[in-house]
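Figure S4 source data
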Amino acid sequence: MKFKKHEIEKKIEPSSKYLRFFFFLSGIVATIAYRIIFLLDSFWIEVAWYVGTIGFILYFGHRTSVGNKRAQLVRDYKLVEVLEKSDIDEEEKSALLYLIETSLTSKARFNSVFIFILSILAFIISAIIDVYYFLFQ
């Protein structure tokens, strides 16, 4: 598959370092929010739960996107075949093949999409329940 230069640059270009840091921080904040729930009273438990869930939606949505992008690049550019044909040192080739092949076979992408989807569902269900109790209780 052939791509124009601007298409290649767009496909390969990573997100800005600030955006990557934002997603990293959202994962850290979400994890902390979930871990401190046992220390809080009922109102703050709910706040921490929503902060954690929204953070996981952001973080795992991003991880899903990154993993899919990496796997797609490996497929689009046939990087396994390119590397197998290369004349680099066998030990380096083995290491690179491991990295490239595992970007296609790793279950981490599926773990991320699973957590992302379940976090969205949990958020929606919880929001519906909270709105219902707010309106009718």
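Figure S5 source data
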Amino acid sequence: MLFCTPGDGRRNLKQVTDHQEECLNILQEECAEVIQAASKIKRFGVVGKNTNTVLTNLENLEMELGDVLALVDMVTNAGLGVTKEGIEKARINKMERLARFMHTWGDSSGV
């Protein structure tokens, strides 16, 4: 059984400013839109179009990825402690792991 001293959990409830929270909320929304765009490509192909837009599924994915990158910039500038160096280190680490475990890595990884 884990015991906490009184108040340990309470002080961690709100450690972000309203601006930081808003940036994180919008980042979550944009990540969800990337998931949806990727799903549309898997279901309907890259040249397919949603009836509500003039963009192809590929163009929509590019747009949503751009939105995520914009939010990454906002989060790094929001004072949360997220740094471009930390993100780059994590990106490189991820690429190394993918190279070892991704079954189709050599097909078109571009790396």
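The chain has one domain: 18-100. The chain has a mean pLDDT of 88.
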